[in-house]
Amino acid sequence: MRHTRTAALTALAAQTALLVPLLVGPTAAQAADHVSSTDAPPTEYTGEIEGADYRVLVPEDWNGTLLLYSHGNYPSEFFGEMPVPHLLANQPATEAALTDRGYALAASLFQGGGLDFTVPTAVGDQSRLLDWFERNVGEPERTFTTGSSMGAVTAIKHAEVEPDRIDGVLTIGGAIDVVGMLDTVLDVNLATKVLLTDGTDAGGEPIELVHPSDPMASRTALADALTAAAETPEGRARIALIASLNNISGWYDVTQPEPDDLEDWINGQAQWLIWAYSVGLGPTARVDWEAKLGGNASSSFDGSWAHRLVRSGDLREVRAAYAAASEADLSADLAALAAEPVIEADPDAQANLVRHRPEGTTPSPVLTLHTTGDGGAPPSYERSFGDRVAEVGDRERYRSVYVERGAHLTLSVAEELVALRALERRVDTGHWPSLSPRHLNRAAWQLGPDYFGIFDPVSGVSDHEPAFTHFVPPRAARPSW
After folding, report:
1. 190 within 8 A of 206, measured Cβ to Cβ
2. Of the residues 313, 337, 352, which one is the last residue of a structural domain?
3. Among residues 172, 196, 320, which one has the least CA distance to residue 270?
4. 481 assigned to some structural domain
5. How many CB atoms lie within 10 A of CB 436?
6. Residue 32 pLDDT more than 70?
7. What confidence tier does 36 reach under pLDDT thresholds 50, 70, 90?
């Protein structure tokens, strides 16, 4: 493999595919560039509301705008011995940049210590925190919900549930369709089991993808099979096919350019599949999802796998990978997937999950920010959510912008601030400003190199020049609307 990561940090990076920051300003877009002249640190409040810890920062020269942030998924098996980071934005540097500009920041850690699948309680936890803020700090002139990775689900849903309290939404690297996402993760794990294993774990027991009796053994079997497959042409061809099921990128390492070699690209896809889909979102994660939702909320694909491959946009790469593998047969592998029995969702659990899915009906403007190379929460979710908004709401209220970069949530502070400025302008004027890459990059450059840092849980902090780009992702593989 061209790049390896420790299990704990990589799974965190992959699952955190559900966080997103949002930024808001007081009056005009220029206000986002105003840095406070006071040296006084913001006032910090911490406490607990109905079992959910909260954290709040209010600068001395508060501009009247509150940013209510929702974090993504923190798996308990990796945080058992470590404190859960209680962030107020997508990265710590963004927190400082926002409070320096007068924004108040608040975030519930959510019930259960912020661990695992927090979506079922998250909107209620944030609503109660907003109540607390209004009673103890003051009523904001404007409130924006922000969220990273799975936190995007909460940020948008909150704006739909309490439209009179939320003025705008900004998400980063979001997997907005939580129902379709969990269905697709099941498809990916099912294809890994069918194409790369004999159906059993190391102990000879069946690999169980839902209701697992030994989730760790099943998870390990999937991850080990992917690791071994990446070493052979036949295995890499099947990895490319599996990755096509969720439009999974091969740009895994943010410190490297986008791979232009097919083998390197597939090796990157393998890393996403191992750490995000097997370790992060595989059988061990489903134990928590099923406990909180009352059963298995996901179904596997029941349709033409060949048609799905064509719709993915990855057909050329998959065919090239199979052409390079003399002992792999694409038609036979598609037939093997078609022959596998369909896994049915538990209806009540599925209905429970649907209750937490954003429906595209919020009257607040929504801006999403995403890297083009995100394989953990592919940007195709943004396009399909846009289709949903156009179907049931006002498409003019929704926009997506993209940054040409690999990995998950790897947006710079400058890019986040520029996105916030654009959202504020939409709220101030009722019209979106120019969201052209040229305009956005120029605005980010004006903030200066001190704001070019990104934080990646694996590689740490690194600097990246602004990289907004024109990008049209494929539609999500299995949108649930």
Report:
1. no
2. 352
3. 196
4. no
5. 12
6. no
7. low
